[in-house]
Amino acid sequence: MTSLFVAKERIENKVERIPEGGCWVWMGTTTVRGYGQLIKDTKKLSAHRASYEAFVGPIPKGMNVCHTCDNVSCVNPNHLFLGTQKQNLQDMARKGRSTRGEKSPSAKLTEEQVNQIRMMDETCSFISKIFNVSVSAISAIKRKERWSYV
């Protein structure tokens, strides 16, 4: 559990309450991904985690603070819940927010190309040259260890 408790008033003074939906949008500093951020005792804290601790209680070690509203800048404690990393990723996928597959900025292939690769009978080495990816990537795609949802 973290011990960097932040006062409720400090959080409330940095939010804009949105009547539609009920989000408390963090108006302070944010990360490049849009998560609220604040500093307490020279340590950077995620505003949604600080809000959870201030209004709900301690966060057990290893737990994420997740958003029911999918608004990463929201710090409304009624929109926050605890979950493991796996549960958080499953929640994101269920809501269509995950960056797997071609949504990932590092993706070199599309779902259509993955389907083509799976239908090809040529060697992985030959296919890798066509699609400009590694032989091991082609092999993993064919075994459905990568892009398994396609």
Describe it for me?
It is a single chain. The chain is α+β, with helices and mostly antiparallel strands and 150 residues long. It contains 6 helices and 6 strands; from the N terminus they run αββββαββαααα. It has helices at residues 8-12, 47-55, 85-94, 111-119, 124-131, 135-142; strands spanning 15-17, 24-26, 37-40, 43-46, 64-67, 80-83. A two-stranded antiparallel ribbon has the order 1-2. A two-stranded antiparallel ribbon has the order 3-4. The longest helix has 10 residues, at 85-94.
What key attributes describe this structure?
6 strands, 6 helices, Homing Intron 3 (I-Ppo) Encoded Endonuclease, Chain A, alpha+beta, single chain
Number of strands: 6
The whole-angstrom Rg is 21 Å
Tell me the name of the CATH class of the largest domain: Alpha Beta
- How are the strands of the biggest sheet laid out side by side? 1-2
Known CATH architecture of the largest domain: Alpha-Beta Complex
Q: What would the average pLDDT be, to the nearest integer?
A: 90
**Terminal CA distance:** 39 Å
| Structural class label | alpha+beta
> Into which percentage range does the β-strand content fall?
5-15%
DSSP summary: helix tally = 6
- Tell me the CATH topology of the largest domain: Homing Intron 3 (I-Ppo) Encoded Endonuclease, Chain A
Poorly predicted ranges: none
Basic shape? elongated
Binned, the helix content reads 25-40%
Number of domains: 2
Main sheet makeup: 2 strands, antiparallel
Order of helices and strands: HEEEEHEEHHHH
